[in-house]
Amino acid sequence: GDKSLEVSSSSSSSSSSSRRCLCSSFFDAAAADVGSITTTTSSSSSDSDFDADDHVLTTRSYSSAPSTSTNNNNTVVAPRRARRQRRIGRRRFSAIISRATQTTPIHPTDEPVDYTSLGNTATRQLQVQPQKTTSTTTKSKTTKVKTSKNGNGHGSTKNKFLQNKTKQRSVPFFVMLPLDAVTNDNKLANPHALQAGARALKASGVHGVTVDLWWGIVERDEPRKYNFSAYLALAKLMEAEGLELSVALSFHTCGCNVGDSCSIPLPRWVEEACEKDPDLMYTDENGHRSGEYLSLGADLVPALGGRTPVECYADLANAFRRAFRKYLGRVITEVSVGLGPAGELRYPSYPEPLWTFPGVGAFQCYDTYMVANLRAAAYTVGKPEWRHGGPHDGGGYNARPEETGFFDETYGRYDTDYGRFFTAWYAQALVAHADRVVKAVRSSFAPEDGVTLSIKVPGVHWWAGTRARAAETTAGLHASGRPVNDGIYEDIISMCQRTGTRFIFTCLEMSDDEQPCHAGCAPEALLRRVTRAAWTRNVSIGAENALPRYDPIAHERIVARMYGECLGATEPPEGWRLSNFTFLRMSEAMFRTENWKRFSSFVRQAAEPPKAEALKSADDLADESGADSGSLKQQEELAESAYAGWVSSPFV
Description:
Largest sheet: 8 strands, parallel, barrel
Radius of gyration: 26 Å
Distance between the termini: 75 Å
Number of helices: 18
Shape: globular
Number of strands: 16
Strand content: 5-15%
Helix content: 25-40%
């Protein structure tokens, strides 16, 4: 017989059932697993190809009888034709594997892509896929990229990713607007300062700005009554100044996280629903309820005037699309989907003022809906004693790992059967939540809108250098027992691959040697891990800085990582870069004279791949780029005007 690749049905079944134990009626997608694939030797050969829905290899077997054989229609096929079918199958499979293991994957374009028209999962993963053919006699030794007009391509002779691979070498540079750029009364907080700041940013070379579109502002008083007036005015302002606008759909509150300078609540009618049913909010072991973001346990509970939270998110996205239709694809090119506190995909495990750095945080799984799901998962695996809640010895918000029974490096229960079960359930519920919300929001947009969806994942770097990874675990970003390079981050990035969503990661500016040695911090390894995972899966990845920095050391580090240093390779793949970078954030401090000189120098340096030497001063860069002193003088005057606007009428 011939050697072939077959699906190990028994292994796939056991793997799927073990993961399925983590599911319930609330988290139907939390346990998706593709099973395992093994190479065996058999008496029959198979023509293998990627299955579009299951992400696994499916096999079509042909009989190896010497006299006759059958095809898929159960008709007799001559032996010579059967051998030809087997050869074609092996060639097609080899072509797929060679592309999957190539050392330099094609990086996605910044332009929005109609992922539904890219065909099956293999096409989205590999970007270049040989065209399938129904003829068994056609040879497939061609290196040309083919697409079809039947839903598997764009109807052109070149793949869209290839067409745009080198269209733009520089990384688009965005600046985040103040959190209260739009007030609780749905008005622009400081139009003069915003306009002056936008002009200064445009003159310095900034690509666009990012703004939070607050659920508690646009749908404040009544369900389904939206008021986007202030945000429409902002879009018009940015269009006039020649800047793009990236919009973050913020379904959380403002005021409970590091750097929150204002207070913006959830819509009033949502708060009233939470008063009637407090279990709509995340709850810790001590009964403290977090009002930052609705519990993912209630995602499918129709507790908001007959609608579920996921339906509310999708309805707002749909209303946004209708209101901003004329700006989509021109001014607004990216929409970020808020998935948790601070708009990030995580549990509210380290809220201020309950938490201080570097505490491990607290599990948020004690509301009725989360406990019901945990109970179902525990009974499924035959461990009803695990049904009551999270670990009783997880410490507290400000505990250190060695002070807890669960996260202790030597005797901690995180590495027991119970620890592996609970942390896997806890984290996979978060991934399933992201998948549900992203799909619901994506259904509100059409490919012709020209908008890229993105999600933000925080860089929880403290205790990331330890085995237990306590802070990431309580935030839902780590599960015990998972391999280092095949954990929850990889699951999230795979979800982004399936849904055609950009992955945004924070802490781009951080360095290990800048962190306190007693906190087990590892921001560099964390950044390297997620960028490599996104690169190998061909997922578009952007980044932000976690804290405002105006020193050249941080700027130099950011520029290097924007163009591949974050991958950790000696030589990054040719042409690799981040999809965009967002600087945190526009403020009065940015436009102070010394800070502005450093920032504008940073923007110009980021416009091209870094050179061996360190960042130069603004004057040196102007001499090299041909910019005259008049241009720099104009930028300084615009910055002074913006600073004056902040001083005369501050945002906060």
